[in-house]
Structure prediction request, 215 residues.
Amino acid sequence: MNDNTILRKQNIALILVSITIIYNLIEEIVFTMFGDSDETLALFGFGVDSFVEVLSGIGIAHMIVRMKRHPIESRDEFEVTALQITGTAFYLLVVGLIIGTELSFIYQSNPDTTIVGIIISSISILTMYILYRQKLKVRQAMNSEPIVSDANCTKTCFYLSFILLGSSSLYELFKIPYVDAIGSLGIAWYAFKEGKEAFEKAKSKKLSCSDHCCY
Prediction:
């Protein structure tokens, strides 16, 4: 692969991660707004998770920009700090969702409707699938850590969208008690996993294309 082809692939990767950051920002605002107003814990948790994914995306974008200038073998201080902030935010999200779930059971609270969660998660599934497929094409051409990590991050968001869609649909169709809160625990599990991996990456500073966390 010649230098011009590599640069073109890197530019495509940077565009894709920029689109992902912008989409997650919009998602974060919409999800948390509706999640709070509709008292939908899973939707609110997904919105906060989208905000944390923005932090992760910024770290990935920074790595791609560095990679365009010269080959990289380890993370710089900006990326390590971003990972630490991302990991902390994920852990805070886990604590918040667990507390929210406990309160839902204690006060026997359920959302009035989860139709917004169904609509938005369906849009998110389609969007993340398209982005993942495009990132996969770039990843296959360039076995680069930032590009591999960005694709894996998008895949995780894709799976989280299914959790939200499943819990929202079950509640809206069958009014199963606490299924929304249980769905939020699924999001919490993913958040804990990503938070743990973020701190492990920050500690090692090494790059490995076999890693599966968000960078």
